[in-house]
Amino acid sequence: MKTIILREWGILPKTDITLALYKLFIENPQDTEFVFEADEYYFSPHEEMRYDYRISNSDPKPYRTLALWLKGMKNCVLRGCGAKFLLEGHMQVFTLDECENVTLDGFYVDWKYPLAAEGKVLSCDEVGAEIFVDPDAFPHRIADNTFEFFVGAGEWYKSTNNAIAFESEKFTVRKNTGDIYYNSVTPLGNSVYRLEFKEPKKLVAGDLLNIRHNVRIHAGVFCERCRDITVKNTTFYSCGGLGCLAQFCHNLTYQSVDFLPNNQCGRFVSSGRDDGMHITNVSGHVVIKDCKFHALMDDPINVHSCCVILSEVIDNKTVLCTYGHRQACGFHYWAKQGDDIVFIKRGNMSGACHVKANEYKLQTDKTFILTFEEEIPDEILDAINSGEEFALDNLTNTASFECTGNYFGSCRARGLLISTPKKVLIKGNYFESSGSAILVAGDSNGWFESGECHDVEITENTFGEECMSSMYQFCNGVISICPVVPKPETEQPYHKNIKIHKNKFTVSDQTVIYAYSCKNLEFYDNEIVRDNTDCAVADVILSYCVDANIKGEILVDGKQTPLKIEASNCR
User: How far from chain centre, in Å, is Cα 382?
Assistant: First the structure.
């Protein structure tokens, strides 16, 4: 492997290196280590650095604007040495396209003008609040009775008229507040503004608001059709969409990759605009370890595949499919020849049969034609003709997952979402998620983030009292097993073989475990402490579950008492 020290090639700190670095990558695509310095490097939008990537769980856009663009590179290392990247405007930081055995190591990433904003509550009542927004840290103006924030490169973005409130001492989401929507912003002078809430909220003077704005169009690290990729020792202080997004890849490792507010720039409750890590349609093995997440405006980690609606049977080997969600559509690579495709009954979410893909042809951003190597079984065709609704999922594009030693600080919504049939290990993490710490999901009717779980172990984790202190979608327990199954059947549970043991839970008025449509759930050897002696909710809630094995006690007011279990439609 050869070593390229950027300075020796005329690529210097404190300059815009966007185009020069792209040229260097093209000229040295294999067996190369690129060495940066512990200094600042600048990136800005260029027309030459635009490309039509169809990015999962992001807003559709004709093109993405790229900063570092790695295409077809193999056996390469980008050695950051503590380099700090400063970007301006909406850009995707790292883009890896069909790369193999590439490592990104040792970077700090931020924007000259942050892609999130903060305000401090000066006074408040249940219907509104007066807040101060620092014009130097968060350049802004008022237009159409709401905020507009400057993100650089001549771009202004309107607030989405919602915010999240954090306590000023612990920087955790204020309890029982969740999403705060407001109708209008009234200037009061000296960068002080009055927000009128859409519904009553109980804030406290001194609280800090993360004020959401801009759009979800770029990722921090985007990988497509890559294999054996490692990202490590890298911190993102800001991000204009998903943090690390990988799709149609094989084998990924993220180690010590942090999403944190940049305190030195006066930011305390804002880092990424959306999810921290989004792993979708990925195969092989995914490792996320020793990472930190705080003040993200969506889930720190989400691992799933993308299922589609079966819209029409063209012949006994050919179907027309429709992408179900506008932020996950138009993929060039949803299936390839030989992939294992499963037909899913959308009512009870059971897998009805498996066939091998032969050819995938994208028709529009919403539809595609899929042909199979063999004929669709007659019983499936009969069910379709009788009105049964089906979805399709690509099981080849699913991965085993290892999540260890991570810190899930207080962010909006849940902590960790998993929907994959391969083996999952969640071990030794600390959770203070404002919603459910862990959501075992699965869906072919709304988000279309599919994947029934067959083998999940959750062990030696700590769940702090901050968990599930506000309500968001699917947050029914600190650990919420909550697939979207419209017509559940006790004889055919969706998830299977989930083992939860040797964890520590500190709760107040939260349900510890909620399980819906699950078989062989095990819960034992867990330490549970409840600080609310008047809590009325059940400790464990089971619905449409089969063969659940729930053991243990809960410590309330210093006394061990049996778990309060509530079950319905179970056996």
Answer: 38
